Structures are given as structure tokens and as C-alpha cells.
């Protein structure tokens, strides 16, 4: 533990963001630099708890009190070694993780939690600056070949681990550039893409073979992959969006969120000249109150939308935890993202009834009704509030109500992987019903988070390594995590 009374002496402080009126003119990250002295104070707030709940809250099992201590003592080499031992890509999670570790930080019981995510990002960036993160190819090769299909955080983590174990890893990606939703989903104002490129360059230097523009199942058949490689990891994400299924949802101007966000990232990355979906001067309605919806707000504001409204079926959450949602549970409180700060109206407890349109087939409005949530037979159900039906002007609508599971394109079947009723593939300890094929990330667990995808990639890599070599010396989480995993996989 660094400073004995740091948590009394210093308040939580995180980087100031650029003014919303300024930052909506560009797509760069929104935070201003944070001094090392201030960071030292933040690390000093860690109490080095005997039972560090933060550590348990992190899906990767990040060893948080230890790296906080190293940062306090300015031992950057030690800090990055500790962080790298559990997390392949702290430069990603340090920027875009919702930080479940902070939600379970003991200090959060009656004070603001330790700024763990900021400390993580700072360790990663300082380590790059000092040249502490450099290519470290494996000393020996095993002669085994592994194909990883899908280059999101799950595939990248699996490839990184398996390469470190000495296997020859080829990572296939259908898109032009690797990164999955890090590249084509999460907006640049949350994660600038040079951060991904920097990591990919390192992995290439370490020996990972990247094959972009290669859709497995089309450019190369599943059988060829199975014949050419000793093991396969499928990490193709959960790309099947949930539909709204209301009248008028086929009008021009009604889109799934990812159609808009993915194209915007391609424009910024120089792959497209302009986004064919423009929010400029339009009344934008976003259906879905989650993070993807929030990303649509940030992007629509940058386009210069006339108005932005975000709709959420569920009631407005409280500002503070309630007695039914105590620490260290994930706080079910109102989240105000940086995109919300930039301007949007948020409406809760609202049901979408139908889109209206004009003769040209373009959307012009969205009819809504307020709802009331009540407990019925032990379950929460909603009722429409009579007399509240109204139609809002709408020139552009984004549906952001989640994902159902992997794309239904026959890929799993081609690899001989059986699925469950909910369309997710069956798996046991990351191994599919085809023993040679392993699964990781959103395609296995359903729509989730980057931190979980990295964790899945790492754990799947252990199982692949064991399958190929009989045992594995790759690091893995303790077995109690697997019990939870099995429950998820069903
Ligand atoms: C808009 C948006 C914003 C988000 N923001 C955050 C956030 O701020 N923080 C957070 O933690 N999480 C966020 N998430 C969730 C997070 O991005 C995902 O949980 C995570 O990326 C899942 O990783 P993955 O590797 O499993 O899959 P993905 O990232 O989806 O990657 C799958 C990859 O597989 C490729 N692929 C698919 N089929 C094939 C094929 N047949 N052949 C070759 N390649 C194929 C795809 O092109 C893709 O590149 C966000 C999600 C979205 C949609
Ligand atoms: S729970 Fe919070 S205070 Fe305790 S060790 Fe973890 S980061 Fe430090």
C-alpha cells in the first residue's frame, strides 16, 4: 500500500473532458491530459484491501491493488508487468470499459471508488512511451497451426495467447481491417483507431499472421480450415441485431444502429468518402437507452442533427443505489455518458407504436405512448397510459435494442458446431460440439463487453493449448469462473 491515508487525503479525480460545444466538431477522444502528480494521488487512494473486491469485480481478474501500488511508487515496469499478466490489451479496456472493478471497489461503500480505469489506461500509455511494451516473440515454436476466425477483442486475445504459447496462428477477418467492434462499432471519440493499429503491429512482429478481407465460409470454406489447421477458434461476434417489429419499420430512414456507426468509423478510417446515412439537420430518434444508443447520439451530434431523442422502455433509474441494489453489485443507476452531455432528450417508460411515413416511403414520425411498470404475479409488466399517445417528428431512426446472437449464415453448421434454442453455440469449457473447434467472445456468451471478450479469448486459448499439447502453461483464471461460464453456456 502506497499512502496510508491517501483515501482520506485525496478525492477521486479523473481527466476533464473537452467542452461539448468544441468536441462535437471532431471525432477525437474527448479527454484532456492528466498530470502524473494527479495520477499518483489517485493511486494513493487505494487501501490495498485484505479482500480486494475490485479484483473479483474484474472479469479478467486484474490484480488491481498491486498495480495501484506500483503506480504510486512510479514503478512503471512493474505496473505493466502486473497488468499484462491478466490483460492483453489494457490500452483498450482503460479507455472503454464500464469498469465493473470500480463498481465493486471497497472505497465505493461510502466514498467515490478508486479511479482504476484511468490508472489502467495510464499504465498502458506510459509503458508504450517508455518502450516497455515491445514485441516479444515466443522462443520456441510447437509446429501446431491454429486458425482464429474473427478479429474482435476475443479473437485478438486468443491469437495473442496462442502465439505466445508457440503455435502458428492465422487470424481470419472478413472486414478490410482487423479489430471487430473495436474498429467498426465503437466510435473514435471513445477509442481512436491508432490504438488498435499500434497493437496489431506488435502482434504481427511477434508472428501472428493476419488475413483480412477473408470471410470464412465464403473466401475460404470451413472444410479447408479444418483440414489445414490443428485447431480452430471461432470468435465471430453476435452480429444479429434485435428487430423492433413495429408497423412502418421498413420506411427509408429507419436503420439498425450499426449500419450508421460502422459506416461512420469507415469514413473516419478513410475507407469511405462519406456516410450515406446523414443525420445533418434531421430529427433523429434512437430506440434503446443503452451504450450503442448513446454512441448514436454522439455521432448524430457530430453530423449536426436538428434534434436527438433517445427512448427507453424501462423506467428512469435512480441517481443513487437503492437498498435493493447495494454495493458491490453493479449499480442500476442513471448513467450519463459523454454523448448524453453533448445533448439529447431522454425519455424513459415509453413504448414505440408505429412509424409514419410519406408517399416516397420515407419515415416522417414515430408514434409513442407512455407506459407504467407494475408488479404482476411476481413479475414486472407494463401498461399503456391512456391518452398519452403522440407522434414525434422523425426523419431518421436508429434501432439499438441489442443483439440476438451469431449471424445466421450457416458458419457454425459448416464447422459442425451444434447450437442451443437461443441460437448460441453449445460449448463446454470453450470447446464446441466439434472437439477441434473452440468458441470465444460474444458469439459464445451473447452480446457483452470488451473486457469479457478478452477474458473469453484468453480462457479459450488455454483450452486450445491443452487440446494440442496435453497441458498448458498459459495463465488462466481460477476454476470457480468456469462454473459461472458453464451456467452461461447452458
Ligand atoms: C456500437 C457498440 C459500442 C460498444 N461499446 C462498448 C464499450 O464502450 N465498452 C465495451 O466494453 N463494450 C462495448 N461494446 C461491446 C463490445 O464491442 C463487444 O462485446 C466486443 O467487441 C465483442 O468482441 P468479439 O471479439 O466477441 O466480437 P466482435 O468485436 O463483434 O468481432 C467479431 C469479428 O468477427 C468477424 N467475422 C464475423 N464472421 C466472420 C467470418 N465468417 N469470417 C471472418 N471474420 C468474421 C467480424 O467481422 C468481426 O470483426 C459495444 C458494442 C457496440 C455494437
Ligand atoms: S477495492 Fe478499491 S481500495 Fe480496495 S484494493 Fe481494490 S481498488 Fe484498492
Would you give an account of this structure?
- This protein has 490 residues and is an alpha/beta fold.
- It has 3 domains: 6-22 and 34-129, Alpha-helical ferredoxin (Fumarate Reductase Iron-sulfur Protein, Chain B, domain 2), CATH 1.10.1060.10; 145-239 and 404-489, FAD/NAD(P)-binding domain; 243-401, FAD/NAD(P)-binding domain (3-Layer(bba) Sandwich).
- 34% of the residues lie in helices and 16% in strands.
- It contains 20 helices and 16 strands.
- The strands form 4 sheets. It has a 5-stranded parallel β-sheet, with helices on both faces. A 5-stranded parallel β-sheet has the order 6-14-7-8-9. Strands 10, 11, 12 and 13 form a 4-stranded antiparallel β-sheet that branches.
- Helix 7 (90-96) packs antiparallel against helix 9.
- Residues 482-490 have low confidence and may be disordered.
- The site of flavin-adenine dinucleotide has 39 residues, from helix 10, helix 11, helix 14, helix 15 and helix 18.
- Residues 23-129 form the Dihydroprymidine dehydrogenase domain.
In short:
One of its GO terms (molecular function) is oxidoreductase activity, acting on the CH-NH2 group of donors, NAD or NADP as acceptor. With 490 residues, the chain is of the alpha/beta class.
Mass-distribution shape: globular
Strand order of the largest sheet: 3-2-1-4-16
Number of helices: 20
User: Low-confidence runs (pLDDT<50, min 5 residues)?
Assistant: 482-490
CATH architecture label name of the largest domain = 3-Layer(bba) Sandwich
Distance between the termini: 41 Å
What is the total domain count?
A: 3
Amino acid at each position: 500500500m502506497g499512502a496510508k491515508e491517501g483515501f482520506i487525503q485525496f478525492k477521486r479525480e479523473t481527466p476533464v473532458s473537452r467542452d461539448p460545444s468544441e468536441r462535437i466538431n471532431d471525432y477525437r477522444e474527448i479527454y484532456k491530459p492528466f498530470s502524473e502528480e494527479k495520477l499518483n494521488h489517485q493511486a494513493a487512494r487505494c487501501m490495498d484491501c485484505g479482500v480486494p473486491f475490485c479484483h473479483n469485480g474484474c472479469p479478467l481478474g486484474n490484480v488491481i491493488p498491486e498495480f495501484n501500488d506500483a503506480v504510486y511508487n512510479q514503478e512503471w515496469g512493474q505496473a505493466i508487468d502486473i497488468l499484462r499478466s491478466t490483460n492483453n490489451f489494457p490500452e483498450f479496456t482503460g479507455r472503454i470499459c464500464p469498469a465493473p472493478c470500480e463498481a465493486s471497489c471497497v472505497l465505493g461503500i461510502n466514498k467515490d471508488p478508486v479511479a482504476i480505469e484511468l490508472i489502467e489506461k495510464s499504465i498502458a500509455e506510459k509503458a508504450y512511451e517508455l518502450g516497455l511494451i515491445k514485441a516479444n516473440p515466443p522462443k520456441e515454436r510447437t509446429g501446431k497451426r491454429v486458425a482464429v476466425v474473427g478479429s474482435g477483442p476475443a479473437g485478438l486475445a486468443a491469437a495473442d495467447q496462442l502465439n505466445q504459447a508457440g503455435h502458428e496462428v492465422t487470424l481470419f477477418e472478413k472486414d478490410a481491417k482487423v479489430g471487430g467492434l473495436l474498429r467498426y462499432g465503437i466510435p473514435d471519440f471513445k477509442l481512436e483507431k491508432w490504438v488498435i493499429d499500434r497493437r496489431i503491429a506488435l502482434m504481427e512482429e511477434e508472428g501472428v499472421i493476419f488475413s483480412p478481407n477473408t470471410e470464412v465460409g465464403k473466401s475460404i470454406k470451413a472444410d479447408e480450415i479444418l483440414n489445414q489447421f490443428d485447431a480452430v477458434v471461432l470468435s465471430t461476434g453476435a452480429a444479429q441485431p434485435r428487430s423492433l417489429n413495429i408497423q412502418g419499420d421498413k420506411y427509408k430512414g429507419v436503420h439498425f444502429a450499426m449500419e450508421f456507426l460502422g459506416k461512420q468509423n469507415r469514413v473516419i478510417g478513410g475507407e469511405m468518402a462519406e456516410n450515406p446515412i446523414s443525420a445533418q439537420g434531421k430529427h433523429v430518434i434512437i430506440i434503446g437507452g443503452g451504450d450503442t444508443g448513446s454512441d448514436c447520439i454522439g455521432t448524430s451530434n457530430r453530423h449536426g442533427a436538428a434534434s436527438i431523442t433517445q427512448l427507453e422502455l424501462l423506467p428512469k433509474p435512480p441517481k443513487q443505489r437503492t437498498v435493493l441494489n447495494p454495493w458491490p453489485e453493479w449499480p442500476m443507476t442513471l448513467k450519463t455518458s459523454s454523448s448524453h452531455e453533448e445533448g439529447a432528450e431522454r425519455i424513459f417508460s415509453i413504448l414505440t407504436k408505429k412509424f409514419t411515413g410519406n408517399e416516397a416511403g420515407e419515415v416522417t414520425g414515430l408514434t409513442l405512448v407512455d407506459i407504467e411498470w407494475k408488479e404482476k404475479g411476481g413479475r414486472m409488466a407494463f401498461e399503456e397510459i391512456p391518452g398519452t399517445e403522440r407522434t414525434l417528428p422523425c426523419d431518421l431512426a436508429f434501432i439499438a435494442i441489442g443483439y440476438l446472437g451469431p449471424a445466421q449464415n450457416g458458419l457454425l453448421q459448416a464447422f459442425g458446431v451444434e447450437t442451443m434454442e437461443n441460437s448460441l453455440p453449445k460449448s463446454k469449457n470453450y470447446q464446441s460440439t466439434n472437439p477441434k473447434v473452440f468458441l470465444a467472445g460474444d458469439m459464445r456468451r451473447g452480446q457483452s463487453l470488451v473486457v469479457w471478450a478478452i477474458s473469453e479469448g484468453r480462457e479459450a486459448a488455454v483450452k486450445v493449448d491443452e487440446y494440442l499439447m496435453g497441458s498448458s502453461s498459459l495463465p488462466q483464471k481460477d476454476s470457480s469462473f468456469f462454473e459461472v461460464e458453464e451456467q452461461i453456456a447452458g
